[in-house]
């Protein structure tokens, strides 16, 4: 695999952000986004943890089972495989792990994936509307930039793989669900996934 150029990293971030922007998902329902993330991470050859490996259900707050069920149905209809839904155990979020094979610290980089309940502008002056990547879900929008955060984190993962031979220790990249409402970080930390960071 040839390392990306700076231009390629940026182009990939923009394309991914625009894709995620169109299908915003609120906290604890980010199944389509988690699937996109995990597919990309696995394609890079990274170890991926998800479900209860990265979320402690006992520490989860503000998770509505009815919204989760509806999100799973929406994800399946959008082409997310049932086998992946089963793998999550009903909990969104993922962690990529890069082990360099050389001694060093465990370092973490965190991003978030959820949207807010906001209706996106349909003004022709609004960039997502003008460029054709506005939210396809009325009343839901990536108005806080988590689509961008996820896209950047995915390219950080690609950069880490491209530069693995220059790195030491272990790097974990967290794709945290449910940042809005201060719900996801505690449940992710309570899983123990960052205890060694």
Task: Provide a concise account of the structure shown.
The protein has helices at residues 6-22, 31-43, 65-77, 82-88, 127-131, 146-162, 184-189; strands spanning 47-50, 94-99, 106-112, 170-176.
Please state how the strands of the largest beta sheet are arranged side by side: 1-2-4-3
Largest sheet: 4 strands, mixed
Distance between the termini: 29 Å
Strand percentage lies at 5-15%
Mean pLDDT: 96
Rounded to an integer in angstroms, the radius of gyration calculated over CA atoms is 17 Å
- Estimate percent helicity: 25-40%
Count of DSSP-assigned helices? 7
Low-pLDDT segments: none
The backbone outline, from C-alpha atoms, is: globular
Q: Sketch the topology as an H/E string, one letter per element.
A: HHEHHEEHHEH
Structural class: alpha+beta
Tally of DSSP β-strands: 4
Describe this structure in words.
This protein is α+β, with helices and mostly antiparallel strands. The chain has helices spanning 6-22, 31-43, 65-77, 82-88, 127-131, 146-162, 184-189; strands spanning 47-50, 94-99, 106-112, 170-176. Strands 1-2-4-3 form a four-stranded mixed sheet. It is globular. It starts with 5 loop residues before the first helix and ends in an 8-residue tail after the last helix.
Label this structure with key terms.
alpha+beta, globular, 40% helix
List the helices and strands and how they pair.
Blueprint: H1 6-22, H2 31-43, E1 47-50, H3 65-77, H4 82-88, E2 94-99, E3 106-112, H5 127-131, H6 146-162, E4 170-176, H7 184-189
Parallel strand pairs: 3-4
Antiparallel strand pairs: 1-2, 2-4
Helix pairs in contact: 1-6
